[in-house]
Specification:
The chain is mostly helical. The protein is built from two helices and two strands, in the order ααββ. The chain has a single domain, classed as Orthogonal Bundle (Helix Hairpins), CATH 1.10.287. Strands 1-2 form a two-stranded antiparallel ribbon. It is rod-shaped. The model has no long low-confidence stretch (mean pLDDT 94).
Length: 68
C-alpha cells in the first residue's frame, strides 16, 4: 500500500473524530481499511513463509501451517 493511501486513511480517521464523515467518505474509509488489512495480512504471510525454527542441535525446520 502506498503512502498516499495511508495518509488518506489517517486524514479520514482524524476527520471522523472531529467533524464526522459524509457517506461517501465513510465508504472510502471502509474500502481503504479493507485494502490496508489485506496488504498487511499478505505481508505477514510472506514473512511467516520464510521463517524457520532452529532447535537445540542447530537443525532448522520451516514453520508449518496449523493442522499440517
Amino acid at each position: 500500500m502506498d503512502e498516499k493511501k495511508i495518509a488518506r486513511i489517517n486524514f479520514l480517521a482524524k476527520k471522523s473524530k472531529t467533524e464526522g464523515l459524509t457517506e461517501a467518505e465513510a465508504n472510502e474509509q471502509k474500502e481503504l481499511r479493507k485494502e490496508y488489512i489485506a496488504s498487511y495480512v499478505q505481508s505477514l504471510k510472506a514473512q511467516l513463509d520464510n521463517t524457520y525454527i532452529q532447535d537445540e542441535n542447530g537443525n532448522k525446520t520451516k514453520l508449518k501451517k496449523k493442522g499440517e
